[in-house]
Write a structure and sequence with these properties.
The protein is 34% helix and 12% strand. By secondary structure, it is α+β, with helices and mostly antiparallel strands. It has 2 domains: 191 residues, Alpha-Beta Plaits (2-Layer Sandwich); 40 residues, no CATH class. It is globular and about 85 Å long. The N and C termini lie far apart (59 Å).
């Protein structure tokens, strides 16, 4: 008997046929931690304004968002000169960017690396700067723990074989066993575990991803305006929808719709049909009127 393992659907799975240490181009998506609500900024602008206009839809970045942008544009290329960030957008709770490896990914000390380790190093750097900005480090310094930056280890992570990058690669856990101190607590992370990558197969697919990234703020405002317009057409505000009306309760704990159904059930059978239409044989048997 063959036992088939259940399929686990996850956007963090990697392509099994792709060698993530070789040259290539990737569309990367990173999500902020679920505990954080819109840490990177907010979408503003006028959807009627064309691209390039100062009032066109765009994202106003918070200091955390500006830090994430700076790390994206400078830190990755600093540690990996063969990597180039081309297009990007930082949304309030996630970010997209296209990154290209012009040649094999190698660290400064000559160790073979892969895309997962590059992303892990980027997330580590953002986490560290976020902890410093928010004062979460205190006396728990990464230097005291003995943990190294992921790209400096030179070990090959399972990201290149198609498995998900472990969260330990992009988080700093100041545990008592690692730091040698008692009572140390793990620090929170800025990003969710893992990342999503899409491999465009041709120039047309790359162009589609670039257009998607460029139009992300406008799409967000369009969706918000369509939701507001749909409520306006229905004649109710966003806080008072039709479903909320159904959830109302009359005296006795019965909804208006339920009260109507109860009244229909109490009506005599003769009143529940048009007077000029005879009952069918099945109806006569059901109502006990005989054949």
């Amino acid at each position: 008997m063959i036992i088939k393992k259940p399929t686990i659907h996850s956007m963090n799975r990697r392509s099994y046929y792709c060698d993530y240490s070789r040259p290539g181009i990737y569309h990367i998506t990173l999500k902020a931690a679920e505990a954080l609500r819109h840490p990177f900024g907010r979408v503003v602008g006028d959807i009627d304004k064309p691209d390039g206009d100062p009032d066109a839809p765009h994202v106003e970045l918070t200091p955390i968002g500006q830090m994430v942008e700076q790390e994206l544009l400078h830190s990755i290329s600093l540690h990996y000169p063969m990597m180039e960030v081309q297009d990007y957008v930082i949304m309030p709770e996630h970010m997209h960017f296209i990154i290209k490896a012009h040649r094999r990914i190698v660290s400064k000390n000559g160790c073979m690396m892969n895309l997962g380790q590059v992303i892990a190093g980027y997330k580590y750097g953002c986490n560290h700067r976020w902890w410093e900005m928010t004062g979460q480090l205190l006396d728990q310094r990464p230097e005291a723990t003995g943990t190294k930056r992921p790209e400096a280890t030179g070990t090959k992570r399972p990201e290149a074989t198609g498995t998900k990058l472990p969260e330990a690669a992009n988080t700093h856990v100041a545990s008592s066993s690692a730091a040698g101190t008692q009572g140390a607590m793990p620090l929170p992370t800025l990003f969710s575990e893992g990342f999503t990558d899409v491999i465009p197969l041709n120039e047309e697919a790359v162009a589609q991803k670039r257009a998607y990234i460029k139009g992300n703020p406008r799409s967000r405002l369009l969706r918000a305006s369509h939701r507001g317009a749909s409520h306006h057409r229905r004649g109710c505000s966003p806080r008072f929808s039709r479903s909320a009306h159904r959830r109302q309760r009359l005296p006795g704990g019965v909804s208006p719709l339920g009260r109507a159904h109860q009244s229909m059930r109490r009506r005599p059978a003769a009143l529940c049909r048009p007077l000029d239409l005879p009952l069918s044989p099945q109806r006569r048997r059901h109502h006990g009127s005989g054949m």
